[in-house]
């Protein structure tokens, strides 16, 4: 799976195209490029992050950014279908028969949980271990959300620092007109870079990751509920009913309609 | 029903007229129009929203904005009158007689609740299902409120980005006076667009939706209370007394005065 | 009663005089007047309020502003004296004798409560009804406090929008010097109007109303306690002791000193 | 006692000297003085406070500011020593013997508490009365902290209003160069005054008062504990142990070292 | 131990190099140096801190800043290894045998706890005393975090005050071009200094200290758990299991892998 989050890509791509197009209206694009400004804005704000965060958090920052380009690996409806199949099989052929199914599953969390069921571990222990894992996932995500938000705050600040450097240079050499151009370019370009980094990249990405975090945690809660239901050997229909209550209203409706169609086809 | 919220329309209309009038004072209106600025401010901030929110939320944004132009579909006083009639009928002719009334009702939430009463479903189950529906409605509204607020934050930010583009262009071609005009126009016009979008449109609309959300949730709470009262078969007068306590003081007064007039006319 | 809150009047008056005086230092006052700026700043921000709030809240805004010019109708010490007299009379001549006193009272809340006591309504019912009324009063006040705060936020925003209009006009007609004057005047005058509206009028008024709200709620809590004490027929001296504990330390001291003087005079 | 808080005085003094010194670098000091600017910034922001706060709070504002120049009247270590002496005396000669000691005490809170012990008032009553007094002290302080913070917010706002007045005046008389000087002076000087008032005076003072408030409340809690311990007649050593646990770690260490020295000297 | 936090040093160092490099692009470095600006920005904001905080907090500020350059003294994995060894020894040779080990330990908190175990103090008392110590450490750290954050707020404010001084000087001597240079230099350089102090030094350092605080508190919680486990004489393997649950997932994995390697080598 690991489908792409097309919206993040479209947003960043379309936003860049719009900005580039309007930058070419009435001027050449090259006037918006300044290497020293890149160093001050991106480099400077990254240095502030190094002071701000411990090593183990900074190391993950690019992995974290990549996550906002990926769609949530498992959707709610798929998860319900998986569990309906698994619980039917477990009822007919016993819990041990799930061993063959585990190999075909893609989600590590789900695999681990089912393996524990097959190994005959106590439900309380399974619950404790898997809830701890969900908590750990949320903490890991929150660090990523926080570090992107912090970068989104330092970027405009270092943009302003670059602008001040440029203005001071310009004022010091008022008589030399070439220095004015160089100074003012850095002056406004750093603020420009900082504003784009914060408002098109870091702040929206940080918010997107927070949405994904909520969604993934909800799917994992659903999986835990399903695993415990299979272990307790309840009716597959009840397993399905329980999991459906985790879906948002729209998906619930779509799921029910799909069931009806399926029911008609299956002749149930 | 679905009456219009005249205040939202008047506020937006009158505000636009005032701004347009003052823009024509001492200049032609055309100087405030710049296509590239529209692209940067509206387009750019919308791209940031695409990065910020998942697909299912962004898709609803125009539907959400339309809601702030509509009045709450059902008012408190009407709801009380409906319930007084329904409870009288239920008392005289039995709960099943309500079946004919349901067809004439306009509110889906009310219809669903009464249908469950006629179907003889347990009060606890009715309460659970309908409270879940109220919760879902509030969650749906909160997403809409949040997305408008986020747009109201990104709009001025992209206004500032556009201003920076314009200023950098102007500084790069200081010798060419026509470029100055083009540059400065974009420079300030984007900030101008962003400020109006945030302060006349998105922020007030987001706050209006929050008010509507509270009001609708209160009416639905009232309906749930009324449905459960009808099911338990209490006296119509007590049903009315219970529901009146949900009204704000002014409406309560108006309702009582209307009752007295009615009482005199009816000779009660 | 309905005494004026001299401090609000003095603050607004003195503040205006100071500003006007410094505006006349080195220039004529007329340069600070611009009709279009009034329209943009006051009119525009009021239109944003129309979009922001439902009709029933906007309608009350001028009534709400008037409240911040009035002093709290009843003070704590007066209230204690009223209750000491009432409880003495109730003890000597019975609860029904209070009927004559009610006519002379000015506070509607107090009248309503005592009438219920005379009518022999249960203490629990009186408590419920009067606490509901206190809650409603606080909600009503909070809407007023919120709407003034919102206006205090929109006013500087529309001041900035007006400034942008003025700057864009000025830039468009750089060659025409009379347009510069007109443009720049609007430009800064709207920001000036918005800053005064927010910092001298709306924000301080909103805070003053919040103080008044707390005070009035405290007096009403005191009245409720007093009414219930009279109904239960406790000793007038105990009624007084109970109510005194609601006073802030300074007023408590003043009240005790007044009692001693009175005691000496009365020869008690 | 009432020792001075040297740090507040040093901070304000040294800060003023630094600012004055840098103001004299390359210019005469007189250019930073403008009477109209004082009126707008200090007078205007004070008028906003008059609208913002009720009379009884505004009246105390200068008394409140004076407090931030005074050190906390009683330190923790002194308080422990006082209580060790008092509890020894109470054990040897009885509670009534404390009457002579009270006269020599400087703290009113402590005097009142011990007087109640001598008068034989119940421990619960003493606790209630003295906790009420601590609460009242904290409320009184919080009003002072809030009013300084509010002034620290209005001062820069009125600084900006003064700057706008100056800029508008300057723009209106562009042809008259003497008006420019007068206008621009007021323009920036008011912002300058407002920034200093907020960042060197009101905001830091407000924070200092909050620290003092916490400290005084801790000392009073300690006194209350000590008074109740004396009343219950526990061993002086246990009184001391209890009170020591209220000290911050550093003072605790210092206190213990002092005890050892004392012990050696006393030969205990 | 007391290893250095290389990230803080790298962040500050690399950030400074980047800023210095871009400052030398197109100008000499000397134009960014102004002694009066250092006095206003660093000195002025430090004076505001003196007014803001009590003596005992201000005294520690440089010690606090030094902490953000040091790595946490003890890591989780080391701590577990120490406890595994200690609990093995305690089991074989009795609690008193730990006396020899204490001398070799570097952590004072750990030493104090083990000494109490050897001295036969009750588990509850040990827990109380050591939790108090953890609390005190956190309070001490929070004061440091708060004071750096406050400095990070006052620094840009005094940067702006310096800028205003420079602008006013420049306006007063418009005719003297050398004064303009001096005035404007101070004007922008102070804002530049203030922005760097806040965004590269104080704010990130304050956040780093907050991370360190959390980490150290977690290690100390782990130590307390280990000390109590040794005292109660549980199996060394269970001590290890308990402490491992305090590690973050990554370290837990690394610890387990190290154990396996060790196990193979040891032939267990």
Task: Provide structural commentary.
The structure is a homopentamer of 268-residue chains. The first copy, chain A, is mainly α. Chain A has eleven helices and no strands. In chain A, α2 packs across α9 and α7 packs parallel to α9. Chain A is elongated, with a radius of gyration of 26 Å. Chains in contact: A-B, A-E, B-C, C-D, D-E. At the A-E interface, α2, α3, α8 and α9 of A face α1 and α9 of E.
Shape verdict of chain A: elongated
In what range is the share of β-strand residues of chain A? under 5%
The pair of chains with the biggest contact is: A-E, 39 and 43 residues
Question: How confident overall, as mean pLDDT of chain A?
Answer: 85
**Number of helices in the DSSP assignment of chain A:** 11
- Helicity level of chain A: over 70%
- What's the N-to-C terminus distance of chain A? 31 Å
Main beta sheet of chain A: none
| Total strands of chain A | 0
Oligomer: homopentamer
Helix/strand/pairing category of chain A: mainly alpha
């Amino acid at each position: 799976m690991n489908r792409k989050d097309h919206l993040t890509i479209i947003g960043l791509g379309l936003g860049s195209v719009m900005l580039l197009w309007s930058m070419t209206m009435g001027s050449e694009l090259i006037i918006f490029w300044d290497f020293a400004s890149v160093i001050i804005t991106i480099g400077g704000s990254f240095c502030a992050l190094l002071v701000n965060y411990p090593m183990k958090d900074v190391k993950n920052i690019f992995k974290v950014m990549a996550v906002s380009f990926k769609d949530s690996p498992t959707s709610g409806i798929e998860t319900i279908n998986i569990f309906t199949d698994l619980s039917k099989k477990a009822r007919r052929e016993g819990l041990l028969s799930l061993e063959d199914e585990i190999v075909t599953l893609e989600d590590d969390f789900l695999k681990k949980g089912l393996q524990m069921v097959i190994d005959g571990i106590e439900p309380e222990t399974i619950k404790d271990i898997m809830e701890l894992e969900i908590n750990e996932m949320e903490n890991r995500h929150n660090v990523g959300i926080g570090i992107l938000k912090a970068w989104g705050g330092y970027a405009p600040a270092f943009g302003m620092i670059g602008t001040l450097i440029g203005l001071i240079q310009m004022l010091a050499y008022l008589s030399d007109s070439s220095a004015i151009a160089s100074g003012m370019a850095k002056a406004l370009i750093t603020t420009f870079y900082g504003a784009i980094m914060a408002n098109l990249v870091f702040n929206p990405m940080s918010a997107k990751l927070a949405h994904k975090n909520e969604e993934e945690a909800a799917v994992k809660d659903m999986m835990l509920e399903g695993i415990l239901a299979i272990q307790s050997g309840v009716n597959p229909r009840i397993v399905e009913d329980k999991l459906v209550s985790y879906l948002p209203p729209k998906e619930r409706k779509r799921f029910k309609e799909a069931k009806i169609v399926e029911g008609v086809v299956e002749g149930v």
